[in-house]
Every structure is written in C-alpha cells, then in structure tokens.
C-alpha cells in the first residue's frame, strides 16, 4: 500500500552559517526514483542547502523522510537513511579499497564501541565493489588509485551505506569525461531501485540535465524555478547566470558538429570522435 507521505519533503526550509540564513524558504518534495538537480551560480546556496538537509547546519522549517522528522533521528539513524558524496579530495591515509567501502557500513553497526563489520556488511561491500568494477582492486591502498578510481570507491562506500536518499555535492568535479558519464549512469541505476532518490549539485549543465528529471534553480538562496527538467526556460538560466546560456550552448553544439563532420582532403566524412 503506497505511503500517504512523500518520500522526502522540506517545507519553508532555511539554513545558514550565522544569524542571517543563506538558504531562504525552500520547499519541495521527492518521490522514489526521483533525481533533483540543484542549479545556480556560485554562492547561491546549493551546497549550504545540502549541508542543512544533512543536519550539519542549523535550520528552520520542516524536513521529513517518509513522514518522520529528520531532526528527531539520531546520527546513526540519519546515516542509515541519508548519505552525502562530495567532490573528490586528496587522501593521506592508506586504507584499502575494501576497508574504505566498509566504512559505509558504520551506521548499521549495533553499538558505538568495539563493533566491527560482520559477514552481511562484507557481503554488501563486496556486492558494490563488483557492481562498480572494483573487485580486483579490493586490497589496493586507495593512495595508489587514480582520481576516477578513487571517486568510484567513494561511490561504492556511499552505496554500501544503503541510504534512502543520496546528496551529491559536485561529485564529478575533477573527473575526466569518461568517469563523469559513468558516475551519472551509476547514480541513475541506483535510483532505479525501489525507495531511492538523489539530490545533486552540478556546475556542468549538460551533466546536470543528464542526471536529473527535476530541477531546482536557485539565486541568492531562493527558488527561481522548481519543476521538470524539460520545463525549465532557458531565459531563466540566462537571468540567474548572467550570460546568454542558450547562445553559449548553441555555439558549443556547433563546435562539436563541425568537429565530427569534417571532411578529409578526399571529400570523405571523418568518423565521429
């Protein structure tokens, strides 16, 4: 029987770093399988909103998961339901790939002290490593991985946490094109499973539109547009970003069309890149 509550809801939600809120009066709901992209210029409040949802920042307004107030959850309960994947940073500790992924199981351990992953935790970690093509690297120190491999390990750790909702803060930043595409595809597959949803911050509009079915466009901490990705007016993007976004995208597309349709000296079309 379907729940009477949306999977996730925030209503009149505000948060920030001091007395004056950065995010102001944001409201939206998410259904299972939904992927929401947060768009807007630097400083508009996208990352602040994610941190407010995670409980890292103080906030006001309603925030619920399946009708339960997230503020009443313990840290461990939050960790069982919400996970956050950020942009890749350098690491200085030499955990193995398997050990790093098993860190995602911490919220599921029964007690705070003297607990260690059990057979079920290891099964879940193994499953995610195999799904993301990392099983052969399971014993390798993460300090020896490439940037793309490391971000994939962190994604496996996030999946191993088995949350209901994943928050993504520029997860593809610093990744080359191949890993960006694979990251988005992995996230889309993950949200295709029952009872899952994701919210992502992306600066790359193409990547954001590839990821999301819904968009929240923000400016100065407030909602400018909330709705289906296909319904977002290009003019709204231009106003918020302060440039001719459609014009820029058309020029970019023209460059790729020119590049992939060049003729060689014999008049034959070159194969697309």
Can you put this structure into words, describing what you see?
The strands form 2 sheets. Strands 6-7-8-3-9-10 form a 6-stranded mixed β-sheet, sandwiched between helices. A 4-stranded antiparallel β-sheet has the order 2-1-4-5, covered by helices on one side. The protein has helices at residues 46-54, 75-81, 97-102, 119-131, 147-160, 177-191, 205-211, 234-241, 245-260; strands at 8-15, 23-30, 35-39, 59-65, 68-69, 82-86, 165-169, 197-201, 214-219, 222-228. The relative contact order is 0.16. The model has no long low-confidence stretch (mean pLDDT 89). It is globular, with a radius of gyration of 21 Å. It starts with 7 loop residues before the first strand and ends in a 13-residue tail after the last helix. α6 (177-191) links the parallel β7 (165-169) and β8. It is built from 9 helices and 10 strands. α4 (119-131) crosses α5. Helix content is 35%, strand content 21%. The protein has 273 residues and is of the alpha/beta class.
**DSSP, total strands:** 10
Choose one word for the global shape. globular
Largest sheet: 6 strands, mixed
Percent of residues in helices: 25-40%
Rg (C-alpha, Å): 21 Å
SSE topology string: EEEHEEHEHHHEHEHEEHH
- Give the mean pLDDT: 89
Q: What is the terminal separation in angstroms?
A: 49 Å
As residue ranges, the low-confidence spans are: none
The number of helical elements comes to 9
Class based on secondary structure composition and strand pairing: alpha/beta
With strands numbered from the N-terminus, the spatial order across the biggest sheet is 6-7-8-3-9-10
Strand content bin: 15-25%
């Amino acid at each position: 029987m379907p729940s009477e509550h949306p999977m996730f809801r925030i209503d009149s939600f505000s948060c920030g770093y001091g007395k004056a809120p950065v995010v102001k009066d944001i409201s939206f709901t998410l259904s299972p399988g939904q992927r929401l992209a947060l768009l807007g210029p630097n400083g508009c409040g996208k990352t602040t909103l994610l941190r407010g949802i995670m409980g890292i920042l103080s906030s006001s307004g309603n925030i619920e998961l399946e009708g339960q107030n997230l503020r009443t959850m313990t840290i461990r309960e939050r960790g069982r339901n919400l996970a956050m994947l950020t942009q890749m940073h350098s690491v200085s500790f030499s955990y193995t790939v398997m050990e790093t992924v098993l860190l995602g199981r911490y919220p599921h351990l029964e007690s705070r002290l003297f607990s260690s992953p059990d057979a079920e935790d290891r099964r879940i970690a193994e499953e995610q490593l195999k799904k993301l093509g990392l099983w052969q690297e399971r014993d390798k120190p993460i300090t020896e991985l490439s940037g793309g491999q490391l971000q994939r390990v962190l994604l496996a750790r996030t999946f191993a946490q088995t949350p209901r909702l994943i928050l993504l803060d520029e997860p593809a930043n610093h990744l080359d094109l191949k890993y960006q595409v694979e990251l988005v595809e992995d996230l889309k597959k993950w949200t295709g499973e029952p009872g899952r949803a994701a919210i992502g911050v992306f600066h790359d509009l193409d990547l954001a539109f590839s990821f999301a079915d819904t968009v929240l466009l923000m400016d100065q901490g407030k909602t400018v547009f909330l709705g289906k990705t296909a319904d977002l007016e290009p003019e709204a993007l231009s106003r918020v970003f302060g440039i001719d976004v459609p014009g820029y995208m058309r020029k970019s597309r023209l460059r790729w069309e020119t590049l992939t349709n060049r003729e060689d000296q014999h008049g034959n079309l070159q194969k697309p890149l």
